[in-house]
């Protein structure tokens, strides 16, 4: 993925030079205005008529039309590609940003709970977004044939409404991975994965919602597997923290996290929560800084356990610098032959890369998608032209 030069221009040059060696003619400063699929002059076959616009040296706009046997759409997430595909009969899954960080302005502002925690990281955290009926309906506003939600890890829960005895369905989209607290909110693989799998749900609420953070899912998992613990996350952490009231009764709770992993490979077997983050969570749990474990009440311990396993982070927006990596959405995959990336609707029309409804959970997967489908689409288009001439 990374060349020896550590310069992205090297990759651009490699692809461009390969195209030139293959005899590809590069035409720049020409814009495709629209594409029509129509019969050739002999009336026996169809072709693609492209309307092109360019400018002369005097900036005069010139419109020309050229005819081609095959067309490859490799327009990325630019709207023109989706407009062309739609005009030729394809359905478009609404494009929305994906792979973005979460801003939490209320937490990171001065005097906010996370203020001063930028740079604090966790090797493993669990993020969950609860999907409400309103969020679900907004995310599915498009017609059914224009929407297809990605497969993801979803847990469902049925909650009874108090009024009229109706049932309200909720579900949670859950992702795990390393987590980083930033000057603006949170980032890291766990954040990016959740933004990818819940891209439409975040878009539906204009990136304003609550995300729950479990700061120590591996510790909970170890308690279940090694020590046979059972019950909810809160229950397991409450039990482990309550033991401290007997083991270290004179130690102040705010001093530092007393919980350790038995797995020696987990962060050098240090505390599961860093000292800075621990003191923040103790403060959030309304535990006075001079309270010792021996003086802690059961309600204090439950509050701290809840902060560790289901901390409510209020997302105020996605990354403020438009730093999302990819776009979710595009040409519906059911309308594309994956063996050669040809349209199932228009013979001779091929598509590849981000113009399709494909988005990976990291940038590398998206690069591979673009390059791999681009190669297959190019081969398919060449074969189509040879077979029809």
What would a concise description of this structure say?
By secondary structure, the protein is α+β, with helices and mostly antiparallel strands. It is built from eleven helices and 17 strands.
Structural overview:
Helices cover 31% and strands 26% of the residues. It is built from eleven helices and 17 strands. It has helices at 8-21, 79-87, 105-108, 133-139, 189-197, 199-204, 217-226, 233-247, 275-284, 298-309, 363-387, and strands at residues 31-39, 46-55, 61-68, 71-73, 92-98, 102-103, 121-131, 154-160, 167-181, 185-187, 209-214, 311-315, 317-318, 326-331, 336-337, 342-343, 349-351. The strands form five sheets. Strands 6, 7, 8, 9, 10, 11, 12 and 13 form an eight-stranded antiparallel sheet that branches. Strands 1-2-3 form a three-stranded antiparallel sheet. The two termini are 38 Å apart. Residues 142-162 have low confidence and may be disordered.
Structural class: alpha+beta
* Fraction of residues in β-strands: 25-35%
Largest sheet: 8 strands, antiparallel
Shape: elongated
**What series of H and E elements makes up the topology?**
HEEEEHEEHEHEEEHHEHHHHEEEEEEH
**Helix amount:** 25-40%
Number of strands: 17
The CA-CA distance between the termini, in Å, is 38 Å
Query: What does the radius of gyration come to?
Result: 27 Å
Low-confidence stretches: 142-162
Helix count, DSSP H or I runs of 4 or more residues = 11
Overall average residue pLDDT: 87
């Amino acid at each position: 993925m990374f060349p020896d030069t550590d310069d992205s221009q090297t990759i651009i040059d490699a692809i461009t030079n390969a195209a030139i060696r293959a005899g590809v003619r590069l035409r720049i400063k020409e814009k495709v205005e629209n594409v029509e699929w129509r019969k050739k002059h002999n009336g026996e076959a169809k072709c693609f008529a492209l309307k092109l616009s360019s400018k002369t040296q005097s900036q005069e706009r010139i419109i020309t039309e050229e005819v081609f046997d095959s067309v490859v759409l490799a327009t990325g997430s630019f709207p023109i590609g989706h407009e062309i595909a739609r005009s030729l009969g394809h359905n478009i899954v609404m494009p929305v940003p994906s792979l973005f960080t979460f801003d939490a302005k209320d937490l990171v502002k001065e005097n906010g709970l996370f203020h001063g925690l930028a740079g604090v990281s966790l090797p493993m955290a669990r993020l969950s977004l609860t999907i409400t009926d309103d969020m679900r309906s907004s995310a599915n506003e498009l017609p059914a044939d224009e929407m297809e939600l990605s497969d993801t890890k979803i847990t469902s829960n049925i909650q009874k409404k108090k009024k009229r005895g109706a049932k309200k369905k909720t579900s949670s989209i859950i992702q795990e991975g390393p987590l980083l607290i930033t000057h603006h909110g949170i980032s890291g693989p766990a954040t990016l994965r959740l933004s990818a799998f819940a891209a439409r749900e975040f878009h539906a609420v204009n990136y304003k919602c609550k995300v729950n953070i479990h700061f120590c899912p591996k510790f909970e998992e170890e308690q279940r597997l090694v020590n046979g613990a059972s019950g909810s996350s809160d229950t397991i952490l409450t039990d482990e923290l309550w033991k401290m009231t007997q083991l270290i009764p004179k130690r102040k709770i705010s001093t530092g996290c007393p919980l350790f992993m038995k797995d020696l490979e987990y962060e050098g077997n240090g505390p599961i929560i860093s000292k800075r983050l621990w003191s923040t969570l103790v403060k959030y749990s309304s535990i006075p800084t001079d309270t010792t474990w021996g003086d802690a009440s059961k309600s204090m311990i439950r509050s701290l356990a809840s902060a560790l396993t289901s901390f409510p982070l209020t997302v105020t927006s996605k990354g403020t610098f438009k730093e999302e990596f990819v776009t979710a959405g595009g040409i519906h995959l059911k309308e594309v032959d994956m063996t050669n990336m040809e349209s199932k609707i228009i013979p001779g029309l091929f598509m590849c890369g981000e113009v399709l409804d494909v988005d990976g959970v990291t940038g590398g997967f998206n690069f591979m998608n673009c390059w791999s489908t681009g190669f297959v689409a190019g081969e398919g288009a060449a074969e189509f032209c040879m077979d029809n001439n």
